[in-house]
Amino acid sequence: MAELTLTTLPTRDAWNDALRPLPYAHVLQTWEWGEFKRATTGWEPLRLAFQRGGQTVALASVGVRRVGPLKALYVAKGPALDYRDPALVAGVLSQLEALARRQGAVWLKLDPDVVAATGVPGEPDDVINPVGDAVQAALTARGWRFSGDQVQFRNTICLDLSRSEDELLAAMSQNTRRKVRAAEKKGVTVRAAGLADLPALYDLYRITSARDGFLIRPPAYYERAWSDFLRAGLAHALIAEFEGRAIAHVILFHFGRKCWYFYGASANEARERMPNYLLQWEAIRWAKAQGYAVYDFWGAPDRFDQSDPLWGVYEFKRGFRGVVTRHIGAWDYAPLPPLYQAYIRLRPQLLKLLRRRRPSGI
């Protein structure tokens, strides 16, 4: 087998074009996401391309950040590669481990988009994914630790978009399908949003955070995220309106095979008109029309019972009858285990410096 070599792809188009066809490609590994995190949170992107036989077979956009005397490395929803290839997995992990040692990192965190299982744990639809099982075993054998700091959602719900619109509608729960139709009957309309709508989008997000009790960042953070990705053609926003007033929105990010429902918000008024149900349906229709294979609802509970704070949102998403998808989650490699253990003890204080807490993970 050809040796795995490390190189760089120094331009946006070269990086994204190489990333797009790779298995497990994710929008959080795009060039734009690295630049966005550099500008807003200080994570410097270090972009690594792995080649074998002259072909790019893996990519890892590694965020690098100092916290006091320490350095942390994080590969958000990556690296992208064919995880069915054990030799490739081992080669990439070896290179990343060497990088962490050279950087003097307290930890290197990977959070690949690899599925551990589908279905609700303990229920008849609970099915272990052998690829995810093998990757977790490989990480454990190499001394990686399952991380106590899961930055992104570990679980989500994914909808297969290969079915027709009629099939997707028919598969919904009766209650969800009824509410989609009720929103239309009650005068709710949906339109695409543009850059001029950014203040309205943030205002709805601010209202939602106050109502539902979650923390959000300042307006400049979201305006930068949404505007940069809209301009790059990697985001699409939809606004639900009633009598000309914006009452809800969704913001989708999309890349490769997937479309993700990253952000959603609604006003305190007109909620009885069910705008969120119609918005989701129009978002699904848009993703399907663009040729995406999967619609990812981006987030499901860690505990599948009513004690989990995501339970209400989960029930809403489940009504669209996607598949509960549980990923392997984030794993840490510690070049210096004693330093890592000290970090774990001090983590609550350090995390306040490293990042602000937020519900979406991104």
What does this protein look like?
The protein has helices at residues 12-19, 31-41, 86-103, 130-141, 165-171, 174-185, 198-212, 219-231, 275-289, 311-318, 337-354, and strands at residues 4-7, 44-52, 55-67, 70-75, 80-81, 107-110, 115-118, 127-128, 145-146, 155-160, 189-193, 235-242, 245-255, 258-266, 294-296, 323-327, 331-333. It has eleven helices and 17 strands. Mean pLDDT is 94; it is low at 355-360. It folds into two domains: 4-151 and 329-354, 3-Layer(aba) Sandwich (Aminopeptidase); 158-324, Gcn5-related N-acetyltransferase (GNAT) (Aminopeptidase). The chain is α+β, with helices and mostly antiparallel strands.
CATH topology of the largest domain: Aminopeptidase
Order of helices and strands: EHHEEEEHEEEHEEHHEHHEEEHEHEEH
Into which percent range does the helicity of residues fall? 25-40%
- Uncertain runs are 355-360
Q: Kindly, what is the distance between the CA atoms of the first and last residues, rounded to a whole number of angstroms?
A: 37 Å
What's the β-strand tally?
17
Strand arrangement, largest sheet?
8-7-16-10-15-14-13-12-11
Return the domain count: 2
What is the CATH class designation of the largest domain?
Alpha Beta
Could you give me the name of the CATH homologous superfamily of the largest domain? Answer: Gcn5-related N-acetyltransferase (GNAT)
Class from secondary-structure proportions: alpha+beta
For the sheet with most strands, the description reads:
9 strands, mixed
What is the rounded Rg?
A: 21 Å
The number of helical segments is 11
| CATH A-level architecture of the largest domain | 3-Layer(aba) Sandwich
Strand percentage lies at 25-35%
Shape: globular
